[in-house]
Specification:
Chain lengths: ~325, ~260
Amino acid sequence: MSGILVVEEARRDGSGRIFQETLAAGRKLASLTGLALESAAVGEPGKNIFLQISGPPPAAGHAIRHPLLETYTADGYVLAFEQLIRKLEPDYVLFPHSYQVRDFVPRLAAKFGQVLVGDVTAIEDGPLFERQLFQGRMNATYRREGKGPCFISIQNGAFRADSANGGAMPIAEFIPEIEPEQIRTKPGEPFRESAQTVDLGSAQRIVSVGRGIKDAANMPLIEVLAGALNAELAASRPICDNGWLPMERQVGSSGQTVAPKLYLAVGISGAIQHLVGMKGSQCIVAINKDPDAPIFEVADYGIVGDLFEVVPALTEAVKAAKQ
Amino acid sequence: MKIVVAIKQVPDRDAPVRIAADAKWIEERELQWAMNEPDAYALEEALQLKERHGGEVIVLSAGPERVGSTIREALAKGADRAIQIVCDDLGARDALGVARLLAEAVKPENPDLVLTGLQSEDLGLGQTGVILAELLGLPHATLILHVEKTDAGLKVKRELEEGWYQSIEMPLPAVLTMQSGGNKLRYATLMGIKRAKTKELRTVSAAELGAGAAPAVTLQQIAVPKKQKSTQILSGPAKEAAAMLVEKLKTEARVL
């Protein structure tokens, strides 16, 4: 085929949302290049993959099946996708930008002398692929050079899934050749550290704190504000890495995804890993000393200033408003 | 265990980034530089493994002369020796091009383990370690928080999405990319800084390694991101701005 191969990843929660978004990105690329769309996934059609197609269905679906692929391993997936891509010869291969994709696609791309253009947020005429640099402080456009399959991964939430139900596509089975000794890692069952005691997902108001707080000794400042607002306390990754708040209060790609009525980000610069976890909030307020911090790109209200002055003042103002 | 840690020097997180005149990269003059934080966690893991099991920690970094200061910092923290790939055109290479340089420098060392951070804070590609594993023909695992040596090789703790983890067993030699937060980072001691000056720092030029190839993708242009929302910035003294914010949250946004 000469075309665009959109890859679905079977998700633990059974949700096909990021596949529908990747399909939407594929359609955008198809409209710019005139290429046709096909799809591929590891799994069983109708059971854990190709459950639903929104929008116009791809011309064909390739279901990759092998007993050695039942549990994900980078070695297994690289072998399987390498064989499928050599057979189909697509111009572009699109993936969702998941942890799993980050784990195996750079290695897969290297087999073809290519790199992954990862975490793409927009596709423009050229085609040019847009992604972020410097933790979201800059945008960059990339262009593919030369020939061979071009590997792209699409940022979660960057493309809007088509809402129309698109119907079915013809599905072909693809059985790769994989030997047990080619898989060098032995993955265990996924587990959680401890029972989650905080459900930030259902919180109405969240006060979230980042590196700007500087020291564990300053945390009470944020706790008092959260108390005044009757809000749950949350944080960006570095705060939990430091042990200043438990890991379960982390918002972002490696933590929880939240969408409260009010999300107040204090001293959080707004790296993309954090933004994906909170940008669906109804009202976002940012307090940061850096006027160029990317958190202001998604904020409804912002105060540019020293949080050590602004937070106590805000706590007082909230208390005063209650009276 | 002989461990190679690949580290990158990146602009300091708090340094303001400005777009260079050609709009292809940032203005590097007067910029402050630091060790990429995930790489600092990779170094920490390597030092702790050495403390538990003995062996040697070799730091590897590619870049122009300024990279030497970050390498010295790693030596001061306890790495035994270092290799610097002197390369003034790192930005013109894609992740595969950079990984090829690193692979050529790693090969003669024949290490048991190669560690690096899961991604860099400037480009954020998150690929170098994985490609390095492919070029070295070694198994790999990414987003690792904890490494345990076993009789058969390694048992590592990998972070999955949304608060899930998994254990992976794998043979040595191997390549791991480290997630931040698995350990507490150490500071260099005065003694360490003093001793770093006497440690071996070998330089090798990119040309000597002979790993040149045309990039598969090129960066065309950088720009300041467009705003997704129109933000109302509330200015004035802290007290006034705070009072205005509360008023807006009550009457405009209606979330209080």
